[in-house]
Amino acid sequence: MGMPMGRRTFMGASAGLAAGLALSTGAEPAPARIGVIGTGNRGTHLLSILVNLPEVEIRAVCDLKPEAAQLAAEMVEKSSGKKPTMYTAGELDYQNLLARDDIDAVIIATYWQWHTRMAVDAMKHGKYAGVEVPAALTFEECQSLVDTYEQTKVPCMMLENWSFRRDNLALLNMKRKGLFGDIVHVHCAHSHNCIDHWFFDPEGNIRWGGEFLVNRNCDQYPTHSQGPVLSWMDINCGDAYATISSVATESRAINAYFARKFGPDHPSAKRTYKQGDIVTSTIRTQNGKTLIINYDMQLPRPYDNRWMLQGLLGVYSEDRESVYVEGRSPKYHEWEPFAPYQQEFDHAYWKSMSEKELAMGHGGTDVVELKLFLKAVREKTQTPIDVYDSATMSSIIPLSEASIAQGSKPIECPDYTKGAWKTRKPAFALDV
Ligand SMILES: NC(=O)c1ccc[n+]([C@@H]2O[C@H](COP(=O)([O-])OP(=O)(O)OC[C@H]3O[C@@H](n4cnc5c(N)ncnc54)[C@H](O)[C@@H]3O)[C@@H](O)[C@H]2O)c1
After folding, report:
1. Are 390 and 204 in contact (CB under 8 A)?
2. To test the ligand 1 pocket, which listed residue (132, 194, 220, 369) has its Cβ within 8 A of the most ligand atoms?
3. Which of 53, 85, 162, 196 is deepest in the core (most CB within 10 A)?
4. Can you point out the beta strands (E) in 44-109?
5. What residues line ligand 1, using a CB cutoff of 6 Å?
């Protein structure tokens, strides 16, 4: 599910390049001691960044497939000279990794159905949980993440990298400086055809992710779309999701694609899929804002997020790479390019990235994300995305499923903060 780099992630890359992300605060804490659970595609990608960061020691790697763990261990050994311990003895061997007392945090990049269980077990063992998207698949899983955090006080962060994109953080700065006025409406999407390479293998055999398309009809992957939106809309810190109504198209694209590619008798062309091709969810917040989220991962198309943010004073369109700000944009009712705004409102996290960091992982986005996670681990502070935001973003999976199953009936969104959203202050990416 490797996403193409955002169109503007390299914009302004040459400007203000000090050495390293400016995230340190005085005396250097010890390196974070990390275990990586799940060393497939994404786990290895994250590892390829981690092995280049001085503030981390990879102590252990774990995967069901010994060859995947072996490759990961070799990557670590090559860069540090020290071979991490490998855990490859089955689905529960990760618990032996968690039982060690020389590990501070784990990165979890396994199949979706393991994410919550592993994150919960990590917190119970006193280890920070950095868990890939989505953090949870059901209402019960979302709640168990929150409950475990509240019992253990060990932070859990869903690794939603698009929250850290350069354009999205510049936009957050603009919003916080009041350029758009009060926010009224936001649109977001995850439009990424993953049928031809992630849900299925190149021969059309169903992979683990594809099984969810057989068994569920919902927004299967709602976190890349929502990542930056939560802070644009002050969700869980001033406002909260109130109700959601979702609608799905028929499921046609998967059968049609495999019939075109391999003929109508191919098993993937004949299988019945519950999953509709496009899911559209409309959320109303407690304070009366609206948010539209599109799931769109089955039709032939290039990658797209279609972020749009609209307030009392202006509008941003990622699609158009444009902005209109009343009282500032030079021409009445005319878009102007976003690029100069991105430069002017560039976020502190990005201004101090080194050339090397900018060249890694989604144009540097994954580096920003991991460095902030590691900073929290080393300083024993809250992670930039907390358990409440992780559960809120993930909850769109079961919420959309419930609404679709009931003919788009509005469903009440759980409030994981138990009302604290009314008084909680924004904490994400405050270092402008
Ligand atoms: N944030 C992003 O941009 C991004 C991009 C791609 C994938 N992802 C997410 O990363 C996760 C992994 O995706 P992937 O593409 O790397 O899949 P993958 O199939 O390549 O890798 C998953 C690995 O987890 C291992 N695994 C599964 N269950 C395990 C268990 N119980 N114990 C140990 N190992 C186990 C598998 O053996 C496999 O090697 C998914 O949640 C996916 O949604 C995120």
Report:
1. no
2. 132
3. 162
4. 56-62, 85-87, 105-108
5. 1-3, 37-43, 62-65, 68, 91, 94, 109-112, 114, 132-133, 161
- Give the residue, by CA position, lying nearest to ligand 1 atom 37: 64
Report the alpha-carbon distance of residue 412 to residue 242 in Å, rounded: 6
CB atoms within 10 A of CB 241: 27
Residue nearest to atom 21 of ligand 1 (CA): 40
In this structure, the residue with its CA closest to atom 18 of ligand 1 is 40
DSSP string, 148-196: HHHHH---EEE--GGGG-HHHHHHHHHHHTTTT-SEEEEEEEEE---TT
Average pLDDT estimate for 90-105: 98
Distance between CA atoms of 122 and 115, rounded to whole angstroms? Answer: 11
Share above pLDDT 70 across residues of the chain, in percent, rounded to a whole number: 94
Q: Give dist(CA 129, CA 389) in Å, integer.
A: 14
pLDDT score for 363:
84
User: Alpha-carbon distance 341 to 346, whole Å?
Assistant: 8
Where do the DSSP E strands lie in 196-272? 241-248
Global pTM? Answer: 0.94
Q: Which residue has the tokens 């002050």?
A: 234
Residue 212 and residue 346 in contact, taking contact as beta carbons nearer than 8 Å? no
Q: What is the DSSP letter of 431?
A: -
Q: How far is CA 214 from the centre of its chain?
A: 23
Strand order in the sheet with 241-248: 336-337, 322-325, 314-317, 308-311, 183-191, 290-296, 278-285, 241-248, 411-412
CA 38 to chain centre: 17
Is residue 169 predicted with pLDDT exceeding 90?
A: yes
343: tokens are: 């430069």
Q: Give me the domains of the chain, ranges plus CATH numbers.
A: 163-352+387-422 (3.30.360.10)
Residues 166 and 273: their CA atoms lie apart, in Å, by: 37
CA-closest candidate to residue 297, choices 227, 395, 209: 209
